[in-house]
């Protein structure tokens, strides 16, 4: 038995000690949430209402420094699923899985960690948006659903209930009345509250489908991986009215960093292009024209309502897992595919290499008698998920080079001294490195501020680039940053 597998077995013995499930491979319930920044009650936000996610964090592991590799949905999820940093410009695109996985022949190397689990005896079921396609199938936004799987070898079943919206992409941009952003040609607001029940928007249907599948899986003997992709809080910020009613809009605080950061080239920022596709919004933010305070509060209210909605849907799924007794042998993961800037630096969206765009929610709950409510402050990257899950499940990695590393040892208190403690990000012709204290970013452009440095000890909101004042520190950190230069930018 290899040292790697021996360590995994010892770790599993610790987690499953005292339960009747030891000796079985753990199930995995993986909840993918779109655009969920690390801004829950569990992260210290006293206003947002996220009781189910907060409870999960209280009984599991809350990661405070988990970073996406790319601040856009498809590329971020590709890095997580494959354990690979981007190597080409195409690896930064939302259709990266389509370009590199969807049409290739099956080989000895699994296409994703889900495929590796499937090859190892797991039943694998996907519901909704796991990679980039809203329902797991490849077709244009305005087309009928195809039968071409985005991840052809990962799934035993790929499911979705599009309801009145008929296709996954229509559902992704859904209005409560059955219309969507595509059918309306963008002539809609970036938010909506409708007096409907939870199934009045697609995530309610996804929760119901997941509950039904959990009941079916409970009757089977093989271990399972169930991936459930929730759309909210991705734009449009639409949620049933009862979740809007949880908030007094006047109590919602505005960003602490509304101004553009100092000593930064505007090419590092974004003009909120995705947000401005919603043509009937009352205001259309640009870097030179920020939204009013009143509209900023309305938008944050809408985002918070969407988060509370998806929190409630996750709560229903977790309750079903508990009622079926599956929580005794199931690893539960909630992962936001990247962050989102809620007016931070004048931006409404992601698509930057700032901390708010890259840091996301990440909570893990293990079965058995683990230490409860542990906060993990070490820096981890989404590419570390693949090897971590393999270790927790007692499986080996396929025989190729991966960019991530298992952080299973971080789940044991006092075991993080030798951890790498860094995370790389890529976008806008830039590479960024996050360390426990600093973020350094280097752009492939010939401008005055091609290098940015932020000290999170004194400037956690990244309001001032201090690279020019700290040349020795910059040179030191750039050596570490270059280790993440995968050839993407020559």
How would you describe the overall organization of this protein?
The protein has 490 residues and is an alpha/beta fold. It is built from twelve helices and 18 strands. Strands 5-4-7-1-9-12-2-13 form an eight-stranded mixed β-sheet, with helices on both faces. A four-stranded antiparallel β-sheet has the order 15-16-17-18, covered by helices on one side. It has a two-stranded parallel sheet with strand order 3-14. β16 and β17 form a beta hairpin. The two termini are 42 Å apart. 52% of the residues are buried. The N terminus is likely disordered.
Give descriptors for this structure.
single chain; 490 residues; eight-stranded mixed sheet; 18 strands; 16% strand; globular
Q: What's the SSE blueprint?
A:
Blueprint: H1 3-16, E1 27-33, H2 51-58, E2 61-63, E3 66-67, H3 73-82, H4 96-100, H5 113-119, E4 123-128, E5 157-159, H6 168-172, E6 191-194, H7 202-217, E7 224-230, E8 237-240, H8 241-244, H9 293-323, E9 330-336, E10 341-342, E11 348-349, H10 355-358, E12 362-365, E13 374-376, E14 380-381, H11 385-392, E15 423-427, E16 430-434, E17 438-443, E18 451-455, H12 471-482
Helix pairs in contact: 7-9
Major sheet: size, sense and barrel closure? 8 strands, mixed
Uncertain runs are: 1-8, 17-22
Trace the largest sheet across and list its strands: 5-4-7-1-9-12-2-13
Overall mean pLDDT: 94
Distance between the termini: 42 Å
Helix content: 25-40%
Number of helices in the DSSP assignment: 12
Provide the succession of SSEs.
HEHEEHHHEEHEHEEHHEEEHEEEHEEEEH
Provide a short characterization of the protein structure.
Helix 7 runs parallel beside helix 9. The chain is an alpha/beta fold and 490 residues long.
């Amino acid at each position: 038995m290899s040292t790697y597998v021996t360590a995994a077995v010892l770790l599993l013995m610790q987690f499953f000690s005292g339960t009747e499930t030891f000796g079985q491979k753990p199930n995995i319930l993986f909840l993918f949430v779109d655009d969920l920044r690390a801004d829950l009650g569990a992260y210290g936000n006293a206003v947002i209402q996220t009781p189910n996610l907060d409870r999960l964090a209280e009984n599991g592991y809350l990661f405070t420094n988990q970073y996406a590799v790319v601040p856009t949905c498809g590329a971020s999820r590709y890095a997580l699923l494959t354990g690979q940093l981007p190597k080409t410009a195409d690896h930064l695109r939302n259709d990266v899985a389509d370009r590199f996985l969807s049409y290739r022949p099956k080989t000895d190397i699994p296409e994703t960690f889900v495929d590796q689990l499937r090859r190892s005896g797991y039943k694998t079921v996907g519901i909704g948006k796991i990679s980039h396609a809203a329902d797991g199938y490849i077709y244009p936004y305005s087309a009928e659903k195809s039968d071409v799987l985005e991840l052809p070898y990962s799934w035993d079943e790929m499911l979705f209930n599009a309801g009145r919206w008929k296709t996954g992409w229509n559902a992704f941009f859904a209005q409560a009345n059955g219309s969507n952003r595509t059918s309306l040609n963008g002539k809609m607001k970036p938010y909506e509250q409708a007096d409907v029940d939870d199934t009045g928007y697609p995530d309610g249907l996804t929760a119901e489908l997941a509950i039904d599948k959990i009941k079916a899986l409970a009757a089977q003997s093989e271990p399972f991986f169930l991936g459930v992709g929730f759309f909210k809080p991705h734009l449009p910020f639409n949620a049933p009215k009862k979740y809007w009613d949880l908030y007094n809009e006047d109590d919602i605080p505005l960003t602490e960093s509304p101004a553009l950061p100092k000593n930064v080239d505007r090419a590092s920022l974004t003009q909120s292009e995705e947000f401005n596709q919603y043509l009937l919004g009352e205001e259309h933010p640009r870097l030179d024209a920020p939204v009013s305070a009143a509209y900023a509060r309305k938008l944050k209210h809408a985002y918070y309502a969407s988060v509370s909605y998806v929190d409630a849907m996750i709560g229903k799924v977790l309750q079903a897992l508990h009622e079926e007794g599956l929580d005794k042998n199931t690893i539960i993961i909630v992962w936001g595919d990247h962050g989102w800037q809620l007016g931070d630096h004048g931006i409404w969206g992601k698509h930057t290499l700032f901390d708010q765009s890259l840091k996301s929610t990440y909570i893990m709950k293990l079965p058995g008698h683990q230490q409860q409510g542990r906060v993990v402050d070490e820096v981890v990257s989404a590419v570390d998920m693949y090897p971590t899950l393999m270790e927790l499940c007692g499986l080996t990695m396929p025989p190729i080079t991966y960019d991530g590393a298992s952080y299973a040892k971080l789940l044991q208190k006092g075991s993080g001294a030798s951890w790498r403690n860094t995370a790389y990000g890529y976008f806008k012709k830039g590479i960024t490195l996050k360390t426990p204290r600093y973020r350094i970013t280097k752009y492939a452009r010939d401008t005055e501020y091609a290098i940015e440095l932020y000290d999170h000890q004194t400037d956690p909101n990244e309001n001032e680039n201090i690279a020019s004042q700290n040349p020795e520190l910059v040179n030191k950190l750039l050596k570490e940053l270059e280790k993440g230069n995968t050839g993407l930018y020559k």
